[in-house]
Design goal:
The chain is of the alpha+beta class. Among the domains are: about 10-60; about 65-130, no CATH class; about 155-190 and about 225-305, no CATH class; about 340-410, no CATH class; about 415-455 and about 495-605 and about 700-805, no CATH class. Helix content is about 40%, strand content about 15%. A 5-stranded mixed sheet has the order 17-16-12-18-22, sandwiched between helices. A 3-stranded antiparallel sheet has the order 1-2-3, with no helix packed on it. It is extended, with a radius of gyration of 46 Å. About 25% of the residues are buried. Mean pLDDT is about 75; it is low at about 1-60, about 615-625 and about 780-805.
Length: about 800
């Protein structure tokens, strides 16, 4: 390269480039004031002359975009290449300046007016810092490349075997498609003789219908092991497969929606059993009933799809909806709803309606405040809110419903909050409810106890949790003295006594009128005084109390027997020849009969437990075994006591007459009398081997059973004489209502204090009201006594009060 001399005030540079075609000289002239530029291309060939550029070409103006300017800056990064700038460095423009973020993660820098000096200086230090840090792979010795390895290894992927289906096996002369075969067939393990496998396992005379569950499981295992092809029904894998299928196949990157079949499954195309099965016609419509049940039981769900066409259509619709197509599913759901699919599903209908309204309001930019909620859904969410406010909030956020705050406002309006102890205000609320209902008949009372957590709580200026009730205080010093006295005297309440009122009619909720902090050692006199106050408040509020139920404990029996000491007036019935003497006390003003009732379900459980104890059995051997029996399983003793049994008994009117029922009860009473007298007589014999202790039931059980027949006859007479216009439902009398209340308390809070129990009553009333009115269904809970899960609270529509009276 040679530099040419300059002349006039121009600086001229000549660059001579040797080429095969000649030497090309590039002259670039620059003036001092930058006003005159001239670029001349000269050639050493004699026939070419310098060609001056035009004025436009002499002053080119290139306008770069914002992205191009950023790319020019990023091109200076050490990590950039001529083809691709660094993609880790970022440049943001803010006003006339630029914010530069380097790939090294250092603090961002401001480039004033877009100047790149700071960025270049930073890159120098960043490059040095990067070069001094060794990467982890620098310490690992790389394996030498295998020249025989395939160059397309990076393009190999694992795909699932699609099996044999209509898309992977084109059968031109087929009588039916593989999809039709899979819809009509219930078998899973194919390519074997099912009956021969059964005979090989269990003998020549074995029949699959007669196999036990264990033998059937062995048969299924054998069919699985000897099958040559398998039918798999799944939305993603609905095809025929070989038992030795490879499951996944390494292939090159395949096209979209391309199905691949492994070699093992491809071999099934040559099996005669596969071709024969695919071309065999299968039973449809009314002929399905002739298919053996053992064949249909192989895949119970698919058997239902074959039997019910509408179910098959819904199943396909659900599968499509799982892939994002909801239109067909909702269309078919609406058709089924018009046909009565959701006739008895009030909560489901309310949920669908509420979610649709919520979605419409939100799409219009409206809030859900003031949105009406279906009553069935509202009752269901009331129960959910009583169990967990967090669960209620989660449900409302994802679906629709009433908030916890709204539920609290509604409970406050219902006025079912309890005051401490036996107070007239609690009874007046129930009387008002019955007045609005238009009911003036008999009411069944009940009383029972449950344990609670011993703790002291402050509420409305009173200390709650001590035996005897709330203790008011005015200042902190008085509170400290009260707490000290309670703890020193061990007066913390550990048991709660509840008093309930139950209208003996279907679909009427239970009312809790008192929760009392009972003393630790409560005797029959204490209970009797509380019963007396309970009866006085019922009469003062206008409630016609007919009975007081108990659970059969000795102190409860003694307290009910003490009701006769409260009056001198009685409703009597005597049959001297049979030694039957009924005496029901008249209490109050005006005088009303009050019957002390032992809960019949507790009596049934007590009777069942006599056999479980093993101590009162007539045995012909020396030893007996009784291991791990649940004596609190009420359901075992009470399963016969259900509305289904009552409905069946109504078909035989002779068996449902009250006279026959009372006669049966007294037959049992006469048997108990004669059995007891016989054991006493044999016990008094010399050298007797029989005694009440060894050959009879427990004395407590004798006392309970002896009173049951008298209680039934007392209820019948009292009802006939004073409430003849109201139906008589004897099973509504007892302590079952208290057990339900205690069970719901355990559902809401497993461990509760006196104050917790009192504050839960409005929630429990709302829940029980929803359940007895049939607006929601409740799954059985372990906290609910099993015997009370089968009750007449779920009366059938065909059972009315006239047929029960």
């Amino acid at each position: 390269m040679q530099r040419m001399p300059s002349e006039n005030n121009l600086t001229t540079e000549a660059i001579i480039i040797d080429s095969d075609e000649g030497d090309v000289v590039l002259n670039q002239a620059k003036s001092k004031d930058q006003k005159n530029k001239s670029i001349v291309i000269e050639s050493s060939k004699e026939d070419e002359n310098p060609v001056p550029l035009s004025k436009t070409e002499q002053n080119p103006k290139v306008i770069k975009s914002k992205a191009q300017k950023q790319m020019d800056l990023l091109a200076l990064c050490p990590l950039s290449t001529p083809d691709s700038p660094c993609d880790r460095c970022k440049v943001e423009k803010i006003g006339g300046d630029k914010i530069f973020h380097c790939h090294c993660g250092a603090k961002s820098k401001t480039l004033k007016q877009g100047r790149t000096l700071k960025a270049v200086e930073h890159w120098k230090t960043a490059t040095e810092r990067i070069s001094t840090n060794k990467t982890l792979n620098s310490f690992i010795k790389r394996k030498a490349a295998d020249p025989s390895a395939s160059s397309d290894k990076s393009r190999i992927i694992e795909v699932a075997c699609a099996g044999l289906c209509d898309a992977t096996w084109k059968r031109k002369r087929a009588k039916q498609s593989i999809a039709q075969f899979m819809e009509k067939s219930c078998s899973i393990y194919r390519g074997n003789q099912r009956h021969m496998v059964c005979k090989d396992l269990f003998g020549a005379n074995a029949n699959e219908v007669d196999l036990t569950s264990d033998q059937r499981a062995r048969l299924i295992t054998a069919l699985d092991s000897c099958s040559t092809w398998i039918v798999k029904r799944h939305p993603d894998r609905n095809a025929l497969y070989s038992p030795s299928c490879l499951v996944t196949i390494p292939v090159k990157i395949k096209k979209k929606d391309e199905l691949v079949v492994c070699d093992e499954c491809q071999k099934l195309k040559g099996l005669g059993s596969v071709t024969q099965a695919l071309n065999t016609p299968y039973a449809i419509d009314d002929k399905i009933k002739f298919t053996p049940k053992v064949i249909m039981s192989a895949d119970p769900f698919h058997a239902k799809l074959i039997k019910y066409k509408e179910l098959e259509i819904r199943n396909k619709s659900i599968e499509a909806s799982s892939k994002g197509d909801w239109g067909d599913f909702m269309h078919r759901l609406s058709i089924s709803a018009r046909r009565g699919l959701l006739q008895n599903q009030g909560a489901v209908k309310g949920l669908i309606q509420s979610v649709a309204i919520k979605a419409e309001r939100e799409s219009q930019g409206k809030s859900t405040r003031g949105m009406r909620i279906d009553s069935c859904l509202d009752d269901c969410l009331t129960t959910l809110g009583a169990m967990s406010t967090s669960a209620l909030g989660l449900f409302n956020h994802n679906f629709a419903g009433r908030t916890a705050r709204s539920q609290r406002m509604i409970r406050a309006k219902t006025g079912m909050q309890l005051e401490d102890g036996l107070k007239l205000a609690n009874f007046e609320k129930v009387a008002q409810f019955l007045s609005n209902l238009g009911y003036s008949g008999p009411v069944a009372g009940a009383s029972n106890q449950t344990v609670c957590v011993k703790t002291l709580r402050h509420h409305n200026g009173c200390l709650v949790g001590a035996e005897g009730g709330d203790i008011p205080f005015e200042h902190a010093e008085e509170l400290a003295n009260i707490v000290k006295n309670i703890t020193e005297e061990d007066k913390l309440c550990g048991k709660i006594r509840a008093y309930t009122l139950q209208v003996p009619l279907p679909n009427v909720p239970t009312f809790v009128v008192a929760l009392i902090a009972s003393p630790a050692k409560e005797n029959a006199g204490d209970i009797l005084s509380q019963h007396k106050e309970f009866m006085n408040l019922c009469q003062a509020s206008g409630i016609n109390l007919l009975s007081i139920g108990g659970d059969g404990a000795p102190v409860e029996l003694a307290a009910q027997a003490g009701l006769e000491t409260l009056t001198t007036e009685f409703l009597t019935f005597d049959e001297s020849s049979l030694k039957v003497h009924i005496k029901v006390p008249f209490i109050g003003n005006p005088l009303r009969p009050i019957v002390g009732v032992q809960d019949p379900k507790h009596a049934k459980k007590t009777a069942t437990n006599q056999f479980l104890s093993g101590a009162r059995l007539l045995a012909s051997v020396k030893y007996y075994a009784c291991v791990q029996h649940d004596k609190q399983d009420d359901g075992r003793a009470f399963r016969i006591f259900s509305w289904q049994t009552l409905e069946a008994s109504l078909f035989n009117p002779e068996s449902t007459v009250i006279e026959k029922g009372s006669a049966s009860a007294w037959t049992a009473e006469f048997f108990m009398r004669r059995w007891k007298n016989y054991l006493k007589r044999r016990q008094d014999e010399p050298n007797s081997i029989m005694s009440m202790k060894n050959n009879g039931i427990s004395p407590q059980s004798f006392n309970i059973f002896e009173t049951l027949a008298q209680i039934l006859l007392s209820l019948i007479i009292s009802h006939r004489e004073h409430y003849p216009d109201f139906p008589f439902l004897p099973w509504k009398h007892g302590s079952e209502a208290c057990e339900h209340i205690f069970g719901w308390m355990r559902v809401i809070s497993e461990n509760f204090s006196v104050l917790d129990a009192r504050l839960m009553i409005p929630k429990i009333f709302a829940v029980i009201k929803s359940i007895v009115m049939g607006k929601m269904k409740m799954a059985p809970s372990e906290h609910m006594h099993a015997g009370y899960q089968i009750s007449f609270s779920q009366e059938h529509e065909g059972l009315n009060t006239k047929s029960l009276s």
